[in-house]
Amino acid sequence: MSAPRLEIHLEHLQHNARTMVNRLASQGIKITGVSKSTLGMPEIARTWVAAGVHSIGEARIESIEILNRCELGVPLLLIRSPMLSQVERVVAHAAISCNSELIVLKALAAAAACQGVRHGVMLMVELGDLREGVLAADLEAMVVLTLALPSLLLVGIGTNLGCQHGIAPDPTNMAELSRLINAMEARFGIKLEWCSGGNSANLPWLASGGKPGRINHLRLGEALLLGREPLTRKQIPGLYTDAITLVAEVIECKLKPSQPWGTPHSTSFSNEPTTSQITPQITPAQPMTRRALLALGEQDADPAGLSAAQLTIEGASSDHLVVSGATMKLGVGDEQRFQISYSALLRAMTSPFVSRCFI
């Protein structure tokens, strides 16, 4: 098999999804499986649907269009606010989209009217992480407009935390979301289907005894794919963390000095010298270490998101990864497997030089 490659264990992914579907169902919460870091990979979406996820979420309309052709039998949710330039495509291919701008809602309504369909809308409210969402004081105006546009269907209210500034879901902000949806329903005499509390960052709060209140929906990506929650990167009990692994091939392995030498400057991927203790020349006293060079670089994955037992990631350039280890037994032509973070997965899936292998 070619390297570098992502090895994708579909059974492990199905286990993760089924486990979370069942676990959250006991709290009245349904799951949208967010496949955006896989570029809308149909094989993964089908696996999640078979495990019982309520819907599939994507951030880009191109991936929504791919999944729409697969006829998955579940709603497709555009989790990033639609671009004005793409509203026609959004209405044509996504059942629901997340929204926070009046002008976009009007454009979606016009596109839906032209296509003779009714487009679902989830209004996003800002609760502290300062990414998408209207302020609570402006939510009522958004609801008024959405309800006044007959080609739009207001399906719910949601929020997003943990992505921009790492603000964690907690009893205060989650109770505020429940309060807001209750207030909107009472004010307009309506019943909304979704109260979407957020993403995988919500899981520690729920596991610690958090009360969902009105929250009945979460958008999970990292938990289903990597078995971890994003706030602390801790493993979620009962889930696989190796459902997707990255494999790279060794192209050099030698004993070398433990420190570089010469005059340090910044590199293409740093703004600081590589070390503050660069020796002017090799000396007999400088310890030697075994270092391996792999055919994998910044263009293929986030080096900070790679890990392997008994290996240290020394650094990376655009297409080289340097690792070391006191007991390392790698040789030229050998393959090394890495566990990956969400950022490493996202970049690896995007790289045209990383192949995919289903196991």
Report on this model:
This protein is α/β, with parallel strands linked by helices and 359 residues long. It has 2 domains: 217 residues, Alanine racemase (TIM Barrel, Alpha-Beta Barrel); 115 residues, Beta Barrel (Elongation Factor Tu (Ef-tu), domain 3). The protein is 28% helix and 23% strand. The protein has 10 helices and 16 strands. The protein is elongated, with a radius of gyration of 23 Å. It starts with a strand and ends with a strand. The relative contact order is 0.14. The mean pLDDT is 95. Its cofactor is pyridoxal 5'-phosphate.
- Element-by-element helix/strand order: EHEHEHEHEHEHEHEHEHEEEEEEHE
Percentage of residues in strands: 15-25%
* CATH fold name of the largest domain: TIM Barrel
Biggest beta-sheet profile? 8 strands, mixed
Mean pLDDT: 95
Name of the CATH superfamily of the largest domain: Alanine racemase
Assign a percent range to the helix content: 25-40%
Catalogue the unreliable spans.
none
Distance between the termini: 12 Å
Over the alpha carbons, how many angstroms does the gyration radius reach?
A: 23 Å
How many runs of DSSP E, i.e. beta strands?
16
